[in-house]
Design goal:
With 643 residues, the protein is an alpha/beta fold. The chain has helices at residues 2-13, 111-120, 132-136, 157-170, 202-215, 249-264, 341-357, 382-397, 441-449, 477-480; strands spanning 53-55, 58-60, 70-73, 125-131, 174-181, 222-226, 269-273, 278-279, 287-288, 308-313, 367-372, 401-404, 408-412, 415-416, 422-424, 430-432, 463-466, 473-474, 490-493, 499-504, 510-513, 527-530, 547-550, 555-563, 566-574, 580-588, 610-612, 617-624, 636-642. Helix 5 (202-215) packs parallel to helix 6 and helix 8 packs parallel to helix 9 (441-449). The longest helix has 17 residues, at 341-357. It is elongated. The termini are far apart.
């Protein structure tokens, strides 16, 4: 049985189709002279003030105005080589397009022309892929890779990347750095780039991110760090979301995101893509495309609450349980293009768009569809065309942030890899989506010009999950800077300004928020670690027969520590004068949930009993039983009214 299982895995996984698009067959040439009139897309040159942050489901600029990412992917610096044959032979590169380790097109058109083309089609931001190998590659790029940009001759790939970042941001575009691959080659199959640590150690990957975040720190229009592209299964193993091992994408992205914000560049958005693929793509074996579904039960809480963005990728030829392969590795599962419009909407909402649709949840955040695309002139299939129209409808309906893949391609005599929105031939002649012969033009214009929320976005309450499942989960900058407050225990602490409102009876999960009160933060205020009942006043026994860890007056609960599953200590933080009241009640959750009617924050501990104070309360204590046989897990919360 084991042998047949491994054989199926090898047969399917080794031939798993690339998850980034391949070109369709070329279509007959149509003259640009036959182009039809069109409406101009929305200008990409609107004023905005860096840096960017988030408010609930929206991305906003430094003035608090909505900044919608109308993005495109300018690929190439992370590699186009398919992985076999000579790197110098264009035929061994994806679709015959050899980027020369630089953003594609620099050998055919001046950079200013390429960037102007982006703006003409309504783009305001660029997802700019790089590989870890590129960062350390000291070999200068070949002259033909930058032939149309002679000032870049003799430069390394990173120096070319620097120049591209500089010119993009000087033109007013926002740039999102995207760690696309470990090695410089085309993505994405079973290729040594399946995980952030597939061809590099996790420590090296983290250090590369710190290097890149620091490198562009002074350029405020570099606005985001897209942590890794299409995390997926290799031949033998799946990535996971929360198991605590070296394949745990949740833990790895949480850790490097916090490190970027605390050690390198606090201005960046931290962008986390969901898991792209798990399982064996063979009928009868478990396999799926989880995307952002795991976020519902386990979400990130960064040290800076307004910096998290989730992302997902969708293409017509893949599916919720379809790898995108044809032949070996192909299953009978439907592809996205096989779904009816209603079915497609339901699947997309389940896999990703719920994160923005459901407000006041621990997982509520902007979702950036950082890759989607379809063949252009070359695509004649009814299903891919219908899928693209339906997917654009979904983006418009949800007012979603997006990034088309790819922006730049090659053509000769108007034939080639038709996926790009802009193409250049070897003589520098441009072919664009608005030349009159590209069926995508109307849908693209609908998307770019679609009405959506604009202007100021009011601040909203933050809801944050604490998950010290396998290690410390300290989301407080202040507590991170102080000595270990409970050595040997796993510690959890809310982001600065938030208060602990909920705990689970088992599972060690917590829920934080700044709802109603706003940030409860005394800049020079202190904290106290409570391990006993010293602050329980005579006559104030709020959980008779239970051990009570109660905060002193004027303090509120912001964290806790556990040893195994047992409560170890309560972390109490001083509140501003006059913010805390004294009216109190006890919330018991040892035998069932007690969260009040219509609780906010979402299910922060799926499958476990939970207790939660109301939105106009703060938590002032935790109670547990130490009787023989007890696991000493939380049983009750002491909830007091805010002033």
């Amino acid at each position: 049985m084991r042998g047949s299982f491994v054989g199926a895995a090898l047969a399917a996984a080794l031939l798993l189709a690339p998850l980034t698009p391949v070109p369709a067959a070329a279509a007959p040439q149509e003259s640009a002279a036959e182009s039809a009139p069109r409406s101009e897309p929305a200008s990409a040159a609107e004023d905005w003030t860096a840096p960017l942050s988030t408010r609930g489901r929206w991305i906003v600029d430094a003035d608090g105005d909505r900044f919608k990412l109308r993005s495109g992917n300018w690929h190439g610096a992370s590699g186009t080589w398919n992985g076999s044959g000579s790197v110098d032979d264009d035929a061994n590169h994806h679709a015959g397009e050899n980027s020369g380790r630089t953003p594609l097109g620099l050998g055919r058109a001046p950079m200013a022309e390429i960037i102007s083309g982006f703006q003409e089609i309504g783009i305001n931001s660029i997802r700019l892929p790089f590989s870890n190998e590129m960062i350390h590659d000291g070999v200068p790029v070949k002259d033909d890779a930058v032939a149309a940009n002679p000032s870049l001759r003799g430069k390394t790939p990173l120096q070319v990347y620097d120049a591209v970042v500089r010119e993009l941001t000087s033109a007013g575009l926002a740039v999102i750095l995207n760690n696309h691959t470990n090695t410089t080659r085309w993505c994405c199959g079973v290729d040594g780039n399946e995980r952030w640590n597939a061809s590099r150690s996790t420590a090296t990957w983290e250090n590369d991110w710190l290097f890149m975040a620091r490198r562009y720190k002074d350029n405020k229009r570099v606005v985001g760090a897209d942590l890794y592209n299409e995390v997926r299964r290799n031949i033998w193993d799946d990535p996971n979301w929360g198991l605590g091992d070296d394949h745990d994408w949740f833990a790895a992205s949480q850790r490097v995101g916090d490190r970027i914000l605390t050690e390198a560049n606090a201005d960046l958005l931290v962008i986390v893509e969901g898991i792209n693929w798990t399982g064996i793509p063979v009928d009868g074996f478990a396999h799926e495309r989880p995307t952002l579904e795991p976020v519902r039960r386990l979400s990130h809480t960064l040290v800076d609450s307004g910096k998290l963005v989730y992302s997902a990728h969708f293409y017509d030829y893949t599916g919720p349980n379809h790898s995108g392969a044809t032949g070996t590795g192909e299953t009978t599962d439907p592809r996205y293009r096989d779904l009816s419009p209603a079915e497609l909407t339901a699947v997309l909402n389940r896999q990703a768009f719920y994160v923005t649709a459901e407000q006041d949840q621990h997982f509520t955040a902007p979702v950036w569809i950082s890759e989607f695309g379809v063949g252009g002139r070359e695509e004649t299939g009814a299903k891919p065309r219908a899928w693209f129209e339906n997917f654009v409808d979904q983006l418009i309906r949800t007012d979603a942030d997006f990034a088309y893949w790819p922006l730049v391609g090659w053509h000769e005599n108007r034939r080639g890899n038709g996926w790009a929105l802009l193409h250049w031939d070897s003589s520098g002649g441009r072919m664009g989506v608005y030349d009159g012969d590209d069926w995508r033009a109307a849908a693209w214009t609908r998307l770019i010009e679609s009405p959506g929320r604009t202007g100021r976005v009011a601040p909203v309450a933050d809801w944050s999950m604490l998950s010290p499942d396998h290690a410390d989960f300290v989301a407080s900058r202040r507590m991170r800077a102080l000595p270990d407050w409970d050595s040997g225990a796993r510690k959890a602490a809310c982001p600065d300004g938030q208060r602990l409102l909920g705990l689970s009876h088992t599972g060690n999960r917590g829920l934080c928020s700044d709802v109603t009160a706003g940030p409860l933060l005394v800049p020079a205020g202190g904290h106290e670690v409570v391990r006993d009942e010293r602050h329980v006043t005579p006559g104030g026994d709020w959980a008779s027969g239970y051990t009570k860890l109660q905060c002193p007056d004027g303090h509120f609960l912001t964290g806790y520590s556990v040893r195994g599953s047992a409560v170890s200590a309560a972390l109490c933080t001083a509140a501003p004068t006059g913010k805390l009241g004294t009216a109190a009640r006890t919330v018991w959750f040892d035998r069932g949930d007690d969260r009040g009617p219509a609780p906010k924050g979402g299910d922060f501990a799926s499958g476990h009993y939970k207790g939660q104070c109301a939105t106009d309360e703060y938590t002032a204590g935790i109670a547990y039983t130490a009787r023989v046989g007890s696991a000493r897990t939380p049983d009750a919360l002491y909830c007091r009214k805010l002033a």
